[in-house]
Design goal:
The chain is of the alpha+beta class. The chain folds into three domains: about 180 residues, no CATH class; about 60 residues, Arc Repressor Mutant, subunit A, CATH 1.10.10; about 70 residues, no CATH class. The strands form four sheets. The protein has a six-stranded mixed sheet, with helices on both faces. Strand 7, helix 7 and strand 8 form a beta-alpha-beta unit. InterPro entries: DUF5787. Pfam families: DUF5787 (PF19100). This is DUF5787 family protein.
């Protein structure tokens, strides 16, 4: 692995978590792994969704695509019997025409039954939306984690702990960096767990404390800049449990749709130099012409080394239908589906 590539380290953490989460304990429930998800204010490198197994399979009835907040507001309150939508759904706090748009989107996707009676739009649920999310674990990845990085990230982790959106917060760093362990332990909040990752293996050197996502949280808006003459007060705001519940479900739905292998959607597997290398941690993208595990920002159509696959690679089924790039996409998609029971390949 390129020691400067946080992207490659991030993929290793994701693949380790998919196989071995939780660290040091036996897995008792399925997990979904995603990357680069969060809120408008905060995006985490790795997200682990611990799921109820039966409810996770029931979630597959609603399809592979995520359910956004507007669809969830309709599906969670849809009645068992035909009902005028305004009688069935709580007041959204915004114009009802937007609710009707969400109802029609749900009907078009086949996850809600709709009909019109007397110029009134009626709805009926097809299935109850399951409570499939048990816990959410957030991991910040820092492969090269020195004292300076620990201090900067420490303030952000304090905000994560105060808000309490996730059930646990961790920091993952590369193993074999003993000189960083003191900085890690001193500057990272005690509520945050620490993982040392070495390829396909990881060790928890500090266990996190469980946070309280069902209780009110605190958002740290501004801190004093410091110094002997700085007497200014920090500014805080209240985080409502209902807001946290909605955000957690939105994050989980996006994780269900994307997973962590969606990185290929922003790269160029149709380039003749693009490969997947099978390493102990799993499959990692590899650029044959640069001889390295490339990042998402490097692997794009504007890359000077980009060469599209020859047309003969994508015809006559050689070497696989659609060419190597299409085969790579299918492989990663099959791996993603393995963690989502009930979905048809």
């Amino acid at each position: 692995m390129d020691p400067d590539s946080e992207f490659v380290f991030e993929l290793q953490v994701c693949q380790w978590a998919e196989l071995s989460w939780p660290p040091g304990r036996e897995r008792t429930q399925p997990v979904l792994i995603a990357r680069q998800l969060g809120t408008e204010r905060r995006r985490w490198d790795t997200i682990i969704i611990e799921c109820d197994p039966d409810a996770l399979e029931a979630r597959s009835r609603f399809g592979r695509e995520r359910l956004d907040s507007d669809l969830l507001d309709v599906l969670r309150y849809a009645p068992d019997e035909w009902t005028w939508y305004r009688d069935a759904l709580p007041d959204p706090g915004y114009p009802w025409r937007y609710v009707r748009e969400s109802i029609h989107r749900a009907g078009d996707r086949g996850i809600l039954e709709t009909r019109t009676r007397g110029n009134r739009l009626q709805i009926r649920r097809r299935w109850a939306y399951p409570d499939w999310v048990d816990r959410i674990v957030a991991i910040e990845n820092k492969p090269d984690f020195d004292a300076s990085a620990a201090r900067v990230l420490g303030e952000q982790l304090q905000r994560d702990v105060a808000v309490g959106l996730a059930d646990e917060v961790w920091v993952a760093t590369a193993d074999g960096q003993e000189r960083f362990e003191r900085a890690l332990l001193e500057d990272v909040p005690v509520e945050v767990g620490i993982l040392l990752v070495d390829g396909a293996d990881a060790e928890a050197i500090w266990q996190p404390r469980s946070l309280s996502p069902t209780e009110p949280g605190t958002r740290i808006e501004e801190r004093p800049e410091g110094g002997t003459r700085d007497a200014s007060a920090a500014r805080f705001s209240y985080v409502d449990p209902d807001w946290k519940r909605e955000k957690r479900l939105a994050i989980a739905e996006r994780a269900y749709e994307r997973g962590f292998r969606s990185y290929v959607d922003t790269m160029r597997p149709d380039c003749r130099h693009f490969e997947l290398r099978d390493v102990p941690a799993g499959f990692l993208p590899y650029c044959g012409t640069k001889a390295c595990h490339q990042t998402g920002s490097e692997c794009r159509g504007g890359c000077p080394e980009y060469e599209p696959e020859p047309p003969t690679w994508r015809t006559r089924g050689w070497p696989i239908d659609g060419g190597p790039g299409a085969g790579i996409r299918r492989l990663l998609d099959r791996q993603r589906l393995r963690t989502r029971p009930g979905l048809e390949e």
